[in-house]
Amino acid sequence: MFTIFPALVDGFCSESLLGKCRSTGLLDLRLHDLREHTTDVHRSVDDAPFGGGAGMVMKPEPIFASVEHADPPRPLFLLGPGGRRFDQAMADELAAIAAGGGFSLLCGRYEGIDHRVREHLVDGELSIGDVVLSGGEVAACLVIEAVTRLLPGAMGNAVSPVTESFGADGLLEEPQFTRPAAFRAWSIPEVLRSGDHARVARWRAAQRLHRTLRYRPDLVEARGGLRDDEHRLLEEFPSVTYP
Ligand SMILES: C[S@@+](CC[C@H](N)C(=O)[O-])C[C@H]1O[C@@H](n2cnc3c(N)ncnc32)[C@H](O)[C@@H]1O
Asked: What is the pLDDT of residue 181?
């Protein structure tokens, strides 16, 4: 990963699941400080834009020098608001690439990056959404976390990405509850204590449908609407206990 703030990324990726994956070697995160490839006394990585305008632009030389020196795993993605939108499907794609030879990320700062980097150095551009951050580091951490948790062995058997939101059925996850069964005035749905595993599974599937229809109907549309068995599930469990 290429950045002018390696400590930012290192800190985030040293805790919790990512820290564990790094210590076991499952996540091999190589941080490259772009300033190590500057040539002036101020270690400048930016300069004023040609044609005038606000802010500074990242110079091409330190970026090309750093990438050419490290010869990182490819594809190399620039993080930027104009890139392909990063989502769970892309996290899946990158997890497969990571399990092969790996991939690399380049973080911009300032007003942006000299366009020749885009044209002649990187293989693509990733955006974490229609929002402008001050730098690519938070976006890179988001990508690294979303991808690492999908690597075989990262989460053990504790959580299956298949049953999570945007998993195999393309829906949002159902509501989750833990002890106590009664908290203040709110009790958990009775079905979860019924011991009837088949009924619990049907209730969960129905709740996934209810929540997705309410909050992300576009996801249901994207998979071609509701199937007959899903209509039946909604009839069996018509109420959403906790929307
Ligand atoms: C202030 S932004 C530059 C925004 C640029 N001037 C524009 O309007 O598109 C600086 C850096 O933050 C990162 N960044 C900002 N928003 C991002 C997003 N939505 N996704 C990924 N990276 C982003 C990129 O690396 C970018 O080069």
From this structure: 97
86 in contact with ligand 1, CB cutoff 6 A: no
Task: Decide whether 2-148 matches 162-243 in CATH topology.
Answer: no
Nearest CA to ligand 1 atom 15: 133
162-243 CATH:
1.10.1270.20
CATH superfamily assigned to domain 2-148: SPOUT methyltransferase, trefoil knot domain (3.40.1280.10)
Summarize pLDDT for 117-175 with one digit per residue, the tens. 999 999 999 999 999 999 999 999 999 999 999 999 998 755 567 789 999 899 999 99
Residue minimizing CA distance to atom 23 of ligand 1? 80
Q: pTM of the full predicted structure?
A: 0.95
Q: What is the 3-state secondary structure (H, E, C) of the chain?
A: CEECCHHHHHHHCCCHHHHHHHHHCCCCCCCEEHHHHCCCCCCCCEECCCCCCCCCEECHHHHHHHHHHHCCCCCEEEEEEEEEECCHHHHHHHHHHHHHCCCEEECCCCCCECHHHHHHCCCEEEECCCCCCCCCHHHHHHHHHHHHCCCCCCCCCCCCCCCCCCCCCCCCCCCCCCCCCEECCEECCHHHHCCCHHHHHHHHHHHHHHHHHHHCHHHHHHCCCCCHHHHHHHHHCCCCCCC
Map out the domains of the chain as residue ranges: 2-148, 162-243
Which residue out of 104, 122, 133, 138 has the highest number of ligand 1 atoms within 8 Å of its CB and is therefore the one to mutate? Answer: 133
Mutation choice for ligand 1 from 34, 77, 79, CB with most ligand atoms inside 8 A: 79
Instruction: State if residue 39 touches ligand 1 by the CB under 6 angstroms criterion.
Output: no
